[in-house]
């Protein structure tokens, strides 16, 4: 017990160091604000969020979120002009599993978009949550 009392401050200092390091790493990576399918639905319904699907054409055609805009990740930077009016509005980016859309979040943030969210788990998580999928071409 005496050992714990004498070394308690070290434990707190180590915890603070680890926690701070994780925050720094997350912010350096552009730490996209990940949201769950339920949170995405709320953002779409309450704040009229725009959904942008950054998957390839065949993936998009196989099923996508209702009313999603399709802009493949490789085309995103050259098509930023199409999204200019959304700079201060909520935007949800999605892909199949959340990796590409996380990169897309970073691209939009660098371009000055202020309210960007990554759908955690992508379309796979969306479907697993029982949310509707559209197969209509846009």
From TrEMBL:
SMART domains: RHOD (SM00450). Coiled coil: none annotated. InterPro entries: GlpE_sulfurtransferase (IPR050229), Rhodanese-like_dom (IPR001763), Rhodanese-like_dom_sf (IPR036873). Residues 45-135 form the Rhodanese domain. This is Rhodanese-like domain-containing protein.
């Amino acid at each position: 017990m005496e050992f714990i009392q004498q070394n308690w401050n070290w434990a707190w200092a180590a915890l603070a160091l680890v926690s701070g390091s994780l925050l720094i790493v997350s912010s350096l990576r552009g730490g996209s604000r990940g949201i769950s399918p339920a949170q995405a639905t709320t953002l779409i319904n309450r704040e009229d969020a725009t959904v942008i699907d950054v998957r390839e054409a065949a993936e998009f055609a196989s099923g996508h979120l209702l009313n999603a805009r399709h802009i493949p990740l490789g085309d995103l930077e050259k098509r930023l002009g199409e999204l200019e009016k959304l700079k201060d509005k909520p935007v949800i980016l999605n892909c199949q599993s959340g990796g590409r859309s996380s990169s897309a979040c970073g691209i939009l943030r660098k371009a000055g978009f202020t309210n960007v969210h990554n759908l955690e788990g992508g379309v796979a998580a969306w479907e697993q949550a029982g949310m509707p999928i559209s197969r209509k071409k846009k």
